[in-house]
C-alpha cells in the first residue's frame, strides 16, 4: 500500500489494473482517513480454498436467512424502511443477468477517474491510497487481504466475495475502492426496469442491509428505482 495518499489515484489505478494479468496484483483505491489508520488493521486473511468452496447463491441465501432470523434493525433511524416492508419470505433466488454491451473494465476505469475527484459525506475531497492485493480479481481480493469492513453484518467475508464474483458475471461489476466500512463498485450492466431492479435490491439488502435501513429510501421500491441504469453501487456497513 502507498504510504501516503496518491494525487493521481484514479490514473494510477487504471495503469496498475492493466498490469494485473502479468503482475497478479489487483489494485484497489483505499480511502484515506485522518482519524484512523485502518489499512493496517485488517483481520487474518482467508485462503483461496475457502473462496473456491463458497457458491455465490448459497452465500446470498445464507445471508438472507440470517436476516430473516433477526427482524430488528440495529439503529433507531427515521429513514429506516419499516420492518413490515423489509424483503421477507423464502430466499427468492438470484436476480437475472443485466444486459448491454458496455465493457466492464472501461466502466471501472471511468469510475476510478470519478472517485479520484469525489467528495466525502462532509463535502471534502476524498484522498486515496493505492493498495495492491495478490488476487485473481477484486471479488476475491477482499477476503484474501483480510478486509473486515463488513464485520457489523458478517465476519464471513468469503460470502461477500462470492456475491461480488456473481455480480461480476451477471452485471459486469468490478471492485474499485474500499474504505474501513465502505465498498465502491463500478457496474457495466445495471438493471433497466423496476422489476429487475427490485430483484437486485433484494440482493443488496442481503449483502448490505444498511443500504436500505439507513440509505434514505423509505421503501424498497424507491431504493430499486435509484438502481435503474446506475453504473456505480456503493455499500456502507454501519
UniProtKB/TrEMBL annotation:
Residues 130-238 form the DUF4253 domain. Residues 66-95 are annotated as: Disordered. Residues 75-86 have a biased composition (Acidic residues). InterPro entries: DUF4253 (IPR025349). Pfam families: DUF4253. This is Uncharacterized protein DUF4253.
